[in-house]
Amino acid sequence: MTLPLRKTTEKLLMGPGPSNADQRVLRAMSEPMIGHLDPDFLGIMNETRELLKYVFQTENELTMAMPGTGSAGMEAAWANTVLPEMKVIICVHGVFGQRMTDVASRYGANVVVVGSPMGRPIDPADLQKAIKDNPDAKVVGIVHAETSTGVLQPLEEISKMVHEAGMFLLVDCVTSLGGVEVPVERLKFDMTYSGTQKCLNCPPGLAPLTVSPRMGEWISKREIPVKNWYLDLNMIMRYWGEDRFYHHTAPINMTYALNEALRIILEEGNEKRWERHWSNARIFWKVLEAMGLKPVVEEKYRLPSLTTYYTPEGVNEASVRKYLMDKYSIEIGGGLGELKGKIHRVGLMGVNSNPAKMALLTVALCDAFN
Ligand code: PLP
Fold first, then answer.
1. Separation CA 145–CA 301 (nearest Å)
2. Which phi and psi angles does 7 have, rounded to 5°?
3. 345 is in an annotated binding site
4. What is the SS3 assignment for 169?
5. What is the DSSP letter of 138?
6. What does the radius of gyration of the chain's CA atoms come to, in whole angstroms?
């Protein structure tokens, strides 16, 4: 029997993720598969860890790629941190902060929420008050780049207050890593995770994760085992460490993909790459303004890798997205949560932070809004 060919055509993925994978990454994925304990593969794992340390800007030895998508990173972060009844503070300024509260609660955390309206960052004064009212909290969790709104959360002041209170800082960098600076060491993030399919331009499938020595020590001394066997860092650390203790079979070809994506970043250089994301986003924001589209986020809190704007009154935003897809093969995103039906989300991530692609999207949007 011959089955019909699978029908996949190339699309320009300028939504909230996945972004397009770099051609070099796709080629790397099709390299021959080898065993996960093969010395050649162990070499690729080691190099991938070093490259992740460069992109995360850290010397943390506990740096690795967890199997699974960004949500596996979030799950691993909370599963390893939380003990039953432990008090934690979670900052919610969008859907992904909200998801953190769900994940942490499932591991038995007693969650205190500090919120802000969608489209605004967390106000450090609100967090300071929550820390003062809850000195027994152990961890503060926050999303750096809130993909549901397009807010880039400033973390300088927040990191200082969390550490002055002796708490751990847990940061979601799914939409920032590889697009904007993620200063793990400088701002003392204790637990940081990301995903591969946004600014790293890889397919979804791995969750880069890095743990500070202080947090790593705390996890290794937990008296109650981590309630998630698959994501237990005490075992996974040994798999990525010198003794190569078997825990799971690493997603081999995904690791080739991540390795290649990180090599591409090293070749471009962190600083140049962040600057490229900033300068292209600023051009795009000017164009949107000229088109009369109202931004969701005030400029000083805007995320360069993901732009959001309100769709004009009387326009059905879903029909615009369908038009872009049908006529131009371009994907952009709609709103989530309370912003559903009201906004568009446009990703300028990695290879798609590119003036030619922005120009094509702008033409398509002008056509669709007319
Ligand atoms: N955190 C943030 C900020 C995200 O944007 C996403 C996905 O869009 C996730 C977590 C979850 O990642 P994934 O969909 O790869 O599981």
1. 10
2. -110, 95
3. yes
4. strand
5. -
6. 21
